[in-house]
Design a protein that fits this description.
There is one protein chain. The chain is mostly helical. It has one domain. The protein has 2 helices and no strands. The chain is elongated, with a radius of gyration of 19 Å.
């Protein structure tokens, strides 16, 4: 396997990881920002007030985007496993 092949495989793997993590992180970011603004406006500094909504948002993101994430991961893994014999040359 050449150096360019290794770099291409690593690049595709990192891009796939970012694509799969983006919905959950995005939902958590938006909810965290909204909760922080709410806490700053009301001066309520309760830790569970920031933690619980983020967990619920991450769960909602997994429920909404889970099928797409699973299909993307299966497609990537299938392509990777079918190209392994060609990578060994």
């Amino acid at each position: 396997m050449t150096d360019s092949g290794v770099l291409e495989l690593a690049q595709r793997s990192v891009m796939m990881a970012l694509m799969l993590a983006a919905p959950v992180l995005g939902f958590g970011l938006v909810v965290g920002l909204l909760v922080s603004v709410f806490q700053a406006a009301t001066q309520i500094q309760e830790m569970t007030l920031s933690f619980v909504p983020k967990i619920l948002a991450a769960t909602a993101a997994l429920v909404l985007f889970g099928p797409w994430m699973l299909r993307s991961m299966i497609t990537f893994t299938t392509k990777l496993l079918t190209t392994i014999p060609h990578l060994a040359r």
